[in-house]
Each structure stands twice: as structure tokens, then as C-alpha cells.
UniProtKB/TrEMBL annotation:
Residues annotated for a divalent metal cation 1 binding in this entry: H44, H46, E137, D248
Protein name per the record: Putative deoxyribonuclease YcfH
Keywords: Hydrolase, Metal-binding
Annotated gene: ycfH
Gene Ontology molecular function: DNA nuclease activity; hydrolase activity, acting on ester bonds; metal ion binding
Length: 300
């Protein structure tokens, strides 16, 4: 039986409560969930991205996460500025590892401006930092990029795959409305040893493809959304040895706080939802998630 009792139980962590406006109401930071019985890691967060109320310093954000059983995180860059900031953060904070890349939505504009190659060259240098363990988030996003930009997006994705293989890092994939082309390009280029579908957005068919290929599926707060039955169907068939958990903070806050800002301290809400959906013991699931994370990124 699933041992996943618990839910919203605490006050808003101090570092976040200080940012809540007096009139924040349903828009403010959610309360802290009950701590997890076994610590896990947040596989994807953006500590440098401001929520509506502002940015919480990394050390305070990680203190709040640790208080509920989230002992570390992967800080992710999406352009040169945030990738450089990621390297600064992982040098300052031992509870962080890093990922660096040019986001697929930005690649077409850089290509048109003639600066994509220089940006990719710098990403490769940043990816060689010993505490940067992934190239990402890269991939394809057909939701925001029109047909005229798809070829440039795909070119950038192929280059990031090559960088990940040459630097010996994991590949963190952003895949929005592009499942078939993501899989096709991974197969054409030859996937790196460790591939993570960040904020897994596929259905059971894509989950089976990941199972067969040994690709990791990182589930975010979206798996808790009432309109995301397809994600729960994917979760049900996903190989437990390939499951990860993330926030993508400050975005994709899990139910029942959807629409409010997200942070690593809210990982337990997603993990509990996963355990309930899988009818798994919560501690056992946490143990698997932590072990899977370290297989991908190494030790903190």
C-alpha cells in the first residue's frame, strides 16, 4: 500500500514569507509541505529567475528545501547570462550542481543574428566546469517557435547533443509539442550516455520509448494537474529506475497551489502525488528518486 499521507502542513518558509505582499492571498508563496521521509533532489530549477515577488537567495532557498527533505538541486541555465550565473551559483553553493545551454526558443534569433556559434562555444566551455553536470535545457519547442525557426532550432539541438557527448555530461531536454522530432534527432545523432526529458510532457507511448532507450523522465508539478491524465498514464508505465522529480521553479507549481510561484521546497507535493498514483511506499519511491538522480548527475 502507498504510505504517502501528508500534504500542506506548514507555514510559508521565512525566506519566502518575507516576499509575500500583504495582499498576496492566493497569489503568494504556498506553505511548506510535510517533510519527506527520505531526502531527494530537485532535478531542475531556476534560482536566478524572479517570481512575481522577487528572487530568494540560493542559500535561503536551499535551506527551506532541506527543511522538507530536498537536499540539493540542479540549477539550470537557458542562455549565456543565466548559464554564466549558474556557474557562479554552483561555485558558491555546495548543494547545487549545474546545467548550461541555449534554450531552443532563443536559438533561432541567435542564428539570425550570427551569434549562435559563439554562444555554443561558450556553452561548451561552461559545461566543462567540474560542477556543471548537464548540457540543458536544450531540445525543441514547437509551441512558441514558428515554422521558419524550426530548422535553426534543430541545428542547435544537434550541436548541444554533440557538446554533451564531448564533455561527458548528461543531456537535459526541453521537449514541447515536438516528441517525434526529439526522438528522431537523438537517434540520428546518437544520444549521450545519460539523457533526461526535463518536465516530461509525453504520454505512455513516449514513456515506453524512454524505457526502451534508457532515457530518464523527470516529472514536474504538471503530473499533479487535474487535466494531465496522460502524464499520470506515462508515470504508470515509466521504469522506476528512470524516474526523476523536479520543480522547474518558479514555474509549474503542483496542485493544490497551481498558479502560485514554485520553489524547491514544494518538491514533496509532487513526490507524494507520484507515490499515490503509483500506489508505492513513499520512502521507497524517495530512495529510488535519489539514487536515480545520482546516477545521472553524480554526487553533490
Amino acid at each position: 500500500m502507498c504510505n504517502s499521507s501528508g500534504g500542506p502542513s506548514g507555514s510559508v518558509p521565512g525566506a519566502y514569507a518575507a516576499l509575500n505582499r500583504p495582499d498576496a492571498g492566493a497569489r503568494g508563496w504556498p506553505p511548506a509541505p510535510e517533510p519527506l521521509p527520505v531526502p531527494v533532489m530537485d532535478n531542475h530549477t531556476h534560482l536566478d529567475f524572479p517570481a512575481d515577488a522577487g528572487v530568494v537567495p540560493a542559500a535561503q532557498a536551499l535551506d527551506a528545501a532541506a527543511a522538507v527533505g530536498v537536499r540539493g538541486a540542479v540549477q539550470v541555465g537557458t542562455d549565456l547570462e543565466s548559464s554564466r550565473r549558474t556557474v557562479e551559483l554552483v561555485e558558491q553553493e555546495p548543494r547545487l550542481l549545474g546545467a548550461v545551454a541555449i534554450h531552443p526558443n532563443d536559438a533561432p534569433d541567435l542564428a539570425v543574428a550570427g551569434t549562435l556559434e559563439a554562444a555554443l562555444a561558450e556553452i561548451e566551455q561552461l559545461a566543462r566546469h567540474p560542477r556543471v553536470r548537464a548540457v540543458g535545457e536544450t531540445g525543441l519547442d514547437y509551441f512558441r517557435t514558428g515554422p521558419e525557426g524550426l530548422e535553426r532550432q534543430q541545428y542547435s539541438f544537434r550541436r548541444h547533443i554533440d557538446i554533451a557527448k564531448r564533455t561527458g555530461t548528461a543531456l537535459q531536454i526541453h521537449d514541447r509539442d515536438a516528441h517525434q522530432d526529439v526522438v528522431r534527432i537523438l537517434r540520428e545523432e546518437g544520444a549521450p550516455e545519460k539523457v533526461v526529458f526535463h518536465c516530461f510532457s509525453g504520454d505512455a507511448e513516449l514513456a515506453r520509448t524512454c524505457n526502451d532507450s534508457g532515457w530518464y523522465m523527470s516529472f514536474a508539478g504538471t503530473v499533479t494537474f487535474r487535466n494531465a491524465a496522460y502524464l499520470r498514464e506515462a508515470l504508470a508505465v515509466a521504469d522506476p529506475s528512470l524516474m526523476l522529480v523536479e520543480t522547474d521553479a518558479p514555474f509549474l507549481t503542483p496542485h493544490p497551489w497551481r498558479g502560485r510561484p514554485n520553489a524547491s521546497y514544494l518538491v514533496p507535493a509532487t513526490v507524494r502525488s507520484m507515490a499515490a498514483e503509483l500506489d508505492r511506499d513513499l520512502a521507497a519511491l524517495c530512495t529510488d528518486l535519489a539514487a536515480n538522480t545520482e546516477r545521472v548527475y553524480g554526487t553533490w
